[in-house]
Amino acid sequence: MKTLIHLLCCLFAAEQVFSTGLPKAPSVEEALARAGERTVLLEFTGKEWCPPCIHLRTHILETPEMEQKAGKDYLLVEIVFPRLPEAVAALPPEQREQNEHLLEHYRISTGLPTMLMLDAAGRPFHQIVGTRRSVPEYLAELEKGHKLRRKLEAALAAAPETPGMERARALAAALELLPPHFRDKYPDIVNEINQADSQNALGYARTLTAHREYTEHRARLRELLAGMRGQLSRPQLEAQLLTLRDFLQTPHLHPELQQECLRTMADSYALLRRYKDMYEYTRAAYEAAPHSRLAPRLLNALQYYEKQLLPSLEQKAKDSPK
User: Fold this and answer.
1) Which of 279, 282, 273, 286 is nearest to 311 (CA)?
2) CATH of 19-148, one of 3.30.750.24, 3.40.30.10, 3.90.79.10, 3.30.160.140
């Protein structure tokens, strides 16, 4: 009997620990429906394999301190990208697809974890990249987001009421408080700017089409990369390289898509043992988007090539008979 009571107590304690921290919702739609006055937090995470994500979850988001200080102010949605086999198997394919869609929709390119703060309409207004050492430090980052939101709302409210370029300039100045990749999530404001600004003096003409183009271009690149899976002969690899080179000429191609394409070309040159071309395309890939999630790995590769590979190739060229 004592053993049973002890087991029940342990289970109750585990449930209490599990339930601490910020309240959660299973989807963005449900979070927005339930949020009320609370801010929705959208967390892009690899919570079971990514060390900063694990720290954010265990030392900040799921702590009694966070629950006490901010539990009434936020509703959290986890957008999970698992890697461990059991975690991958536990996530339904449709949920994995939806998570990838959200990653592209909000154009998260800063690595994991990344937290978005959303208003009641689901529009992002602040982004926190990485973790922080403590709950107070993370709460300070959240407060930065709220300050920005209040400043944005004040700027929009202060815009002249009469339609025209003066109002369009004020609206554009308000949107410029946001990161560029957030602005297309405010389509009503962007449309109003463009209606007044027929000459595109404020530069918002392509704001709403840019994300649609990005989605279309990404789908096309995935199709091309799917055709490069498996063992390809040398002529097949060379043909695919020509196709990727043509893809790079796509108008308005997003820098991160350029980077992914160039990185794939570098890998193909490695398979062809054209190592100098591999190096050059790796460098071009890094320079296309030096702040992307992929960029640190590319930079590490470049440093290795410059310290090890290129000197080895130069020495080999010197030693080879002329």
Assistant:
1) 279
2) 3.40.30.10
